[in-house]
Design brief:
This is Transcriptional regulator, ArsR family. Strand 4, helix 9 and strand 5 form a beta-alpha-beta unit. This protein is elongated. It is built from twelve helices and ten strands. Strands 3-9-8-7-4-5-6-10 form an eight-stranded mixed sheet, sandwiched between helices. A two-stranded antiparallel sheet has the order 1-2. It is of the alpha+beta class and 261 residues long. The protein has two domains: 73 residues, Orthogonal Bundle (Arc Repressor Mutant, subunit A), CATH 1.10.10.10; 147 residues, Endonuclease Chain A (Endonuclease, Chain A).
Length: 261
């Protein structure tokens, strides 16, 4: 069956899609369009004609302009492209892990993570990954996070943040909290006694993350329930930090606060 309509015009051709966003910036002459794409008139003219016939662009005073319909199409097409780009960019990461504990409203905003990169470490280099994590924390002035796994180096690390009066809010799953409370009692008490810290406990969550005013890091579980310590999604831009902050607030609202042991 032959495809037709606005959707096929914009999605079945990279050049048509690029041309739409090019003209969204400002009108262009045919010569400017050819130079942008590095093509001849016979190569680009059919694409231009198709878009004119679809009322996405029009020609006026020897320049091509985006139409009102074209502007609306671009407005709604860009978020879809951003969303699909996030999925395709790290396809294995999303496919290999369970997403069940990422709330739907944040799954719908995965495009906010468009500039995130995947940090992968083999077992022999996991120390380097931990060092990068602590280095990023050291550059932060506010720290929030959720831990669903126990890492022995974290109790003294977060105790040090508390002693240094770094505003820190942590959410621990129930098993992690019990282990820290029983095996690192003094350190968690020091953390709780600090003025700039807060601690919350959650029944369970199949993810772990840290969000600060400097970076966001997300770790997920495999579909079989095992935690993946080797792959982290790492972002530094405002959209990733805001996404991470909203994820923290979502779980904070589902947790109970711990004031004392």
């Amino acid at each position: 069956m032959k495809s037709s309509g606005l959707l096929s015009i914009l999605t079945f051709s990279e050049k048509r899609k690029e041309l739409l966003f090019l003209l969204l910036e400002e009108p262009k002459s045919l010569s400017e369009i050819k130079n942008y794409f590095g093509v001849s008139s016979p190569e680009i003219s059919p694409r231009i004609k198709e878009m004119e016939e679809a009322n996405l662009i029009c020609k006026s005073d020897k320049r091509y302009h985006i139409t009102s319909i074209g502007k609306i199409a671009a407005k709604y097409l860009q978020p879809l492209l951003d969303y699909l780009n996030v999925i395709e960019k790290h396809e294995d990461f999303w496919k290999e892990h369970t997403l069940q504990d990422i709330p739907e409203e944040l799954l719908e905003r995965l495009s906010d993570l468009n500039n995130c990169e995947l940090l992968e470490d083999s077992t022999e280099h996991i120390y380097e990954s931990h060092k990068e994590f602590t280095d990023n924390i050291s550059k932060s002035t506010v720290v929030k996070g959720l831990s669903s796994i126990f890492i022995p180096t974290y109790p003294p690390f977060f105790e040090k943040l508390a002693i240094n009066n770094v505003p820190t809010s942590l959410i621990l799953t129930e098993p992690v909290f019990e282990k820290v409370k029983n095996e690192h009692t003094e350190q968690i008490q020091t953390y709780l006694d600090a003025e700039s810290t807060s601690l919350y406990v959650l029944d369970d969550a199949k993810l772990a993350f840290v969000v600060t005013d400097y970076f966001f890091s997300l770790s997920l579980y495999f579909e079989n329930g095992r935690f993946d310590p080797h792959k982290d999604l790492l972002g530094f831009d405002d959209s990733a930090l805001n996404w991470g902050d909203d994820l923290f607030n979502y779980y904070k609202n589902k947790s109970r606060e711990i004031k004392s042991l």
